[in-house]
Design a protein that fits this description.
about 120 residues; alpha+beta; 6 strands
């Protein structure tokens, strides 16, 4: 297993890797809407979601993957009322055939984020 690390995405805040690569499969840890340059959350749900996709792109790129390689996405929402807005942003990054996905509301996200997304990509 190989750990993937980039300074173009927020640094891990615990004992985990931004992503790990094993057998041509990339497992990307949950990303929050934090700007890696400032360490601060973007303001508002849409801005946090866009930042997450920028963070995911940076990690995918570091491992020589892209959004077209993504096969599975997990979305955690602090409120299911954000579901429609999440889908609006999400659709900018994925096209058919879309990756498998679940989206769930959770009681709380790390650092009180509004959304967190993790994914799996394969070559």
């Amino acid at each position: 297993m190989k750990a993937i690390h980039t300074y173009n995405a927020p640094q891990a805040v615990g004992p985990y890797s931004q992503a790990t690569l094993k057998n041509n499969t990339l497992y990307v840890s949950g990303q929050l809407g934090i700007d890696p340059k400032t360490g601060e959350f973007q303001i508002g749900f849409i801005a946090q979601t866009e930042q997450i996709f920028a963070n995911l792109r940076a990690i995918l790129s570091e491992a020589d993957f892209s959004f077209t390689d993504v096969v599975k996405v997990t979305v955690y929402l602090s409120d299911m009322l954000y579901f429609h807005d999440m889908n609006q942003v999400y659709a900018k990054y994925f096209s058919e055939p879309f990756p498998a996905r679940e989206a769930v509301e959770v009681a709380q996200l790390p650092k009180n984020g509004m959304i967190e997304i993790s994914l799996i990509a394969m070559r």
